[in-house]
Amino acid sequence: ETGVTQTPRHLVMGMTNKKSLKCEQHLGHNAMYWYKQSAKKPLELMFVYSLEERVENNSVPSRFSPECPNSSHLFLHLHTLQPEDSALYLCASSQTSEYTDTQYFGPGTRLTVL
Amino acid sequence: GQQLNQSPQSMFIQEGEDVSMNCTSSSIFNTWLWYKQDPGEGPVLLIALYKAGELTSNGRLTAQFGITRKDSFLNISASIPSDVGIYFCAGNSNSGYALNFGKGTSLLVTP
Fold first, then answer.
1. To the nearest whole percent, how much of chain B has pLDDT over 70?
2. Contact A37, A108 (CB under 8 A)
3. Which member of B3, B41, B92 has the closest CB to residue A101?
């Protein structure tokens, strides 16, 4: 089961560009997440939004700026990125409760910074 | 977040063989999840476990939530070529929103 879509699927940008990644979840969940996946590294949690409020920010550089306008949409705004920011960026959503926090992932955006 | 110990790191097996992989943590988890990721795609949830001792199947896949709540295993029976991919374990202690992920087990199946 997915129900989480991400656009674009692939993005190539220069270090001076500004671009945005978009995520949409169709599962009625109340929490959304941004992860970074680099080659041969575990998934790194970047941001968490719960009920449209940012609840976690894991020391992510300010050149990454998240936005959650409503519970179904999540954006990641990118500006003045570095080549080492090239990675697969994954969005996920979950219905948080006391007992479950099962996260469902989107297909990801493959970002290349030149 | 906490790093989980997932093993083996990679497996090369023949079609039809059974596969077993496991994950351990140093702290207690309330949820164990198993995901599969194909190249260039996002992880897809295979099995979710919510109770210690729970044994759950999804087709040829079976996973168990360890009694100590610090480990979980995933078995794949009668492997087929489309089982190729990277399998991740993930756990949540409900002390925050973060899922703790293993480094993944890369599975290759030869016909």
1. 95
2. yes
3. B92
